[in-house]
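Can anyone check this?
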Amino acid sequence: MTLPHYQLYIDGAFCDGSGAIMTSINPADGHPWASFGATTPADVDRAIAAAKRAQNDPAWRDMTQTQRGKLLFKLADLIEAHAGELGRLETSDSGKLLAETASQTKYVADYYRYYAGLADKIEGAVLPIDKPDMHVFTTRMPIGVVAAVVPWNAQMFLSATKLGPALAAGCSVILKASEIAPIPMLEFAKLIDRAGFPAGVVSVITGDAENCAIPLTRHPDVDRIAFTGGPNTARHVVRNSAENFAVTTLELGGKS
């Protein structure tokens, strides 16, 4: 039986990772149900190089805030239209109830609409100064390349809270999906591509710590890291990013 095969999304193109072909296991029956090519450090470097280039590409750098918002609105519409399919994939990959994944994926579209609405409301400020021949103001600029790392559960939701604001602000993003259950994110990459973001603005990769997460979080060209996961892994993320002073946001496990 030939398994459905999913590819990485790097620099505006779908490709197999340079690593081994891995299989995803359906928790309901314990059988492989899909395959994907895992990322290597070389793939990570390529995704980051594309993201850095996109920051200086006029197609993204000079895009107006309103245009960025329109791309996010289009992505939201695509997510809503494919919510059922994405929910089924997440259920097959993670074992969560279909009723939960389908409904959760559908309202994820509204998260992107929220950030789309914020895209043209990013403001600076004019500051008072006691020198009559000077004018002081602040302006907000994209921080640069963002690494967004999400765990296996609720990937569509958790990625929305990272990807949405980063794109609204004009950043480029490497979205690292969990190698345990990456299929929903790899399918989601098809919607990102259809939405029309310029090449390199968003890449979607997956792989284990040694070949993917560590090279990503310690890379000197990553300016910000947004991570959701456990505290033990988070400690490694902080250590990896410290050398480059990458701004790091951590959402860790806890009892709510």
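Reply from J.R.: I decoded it. The chain is about 45% helix and 20% strand.
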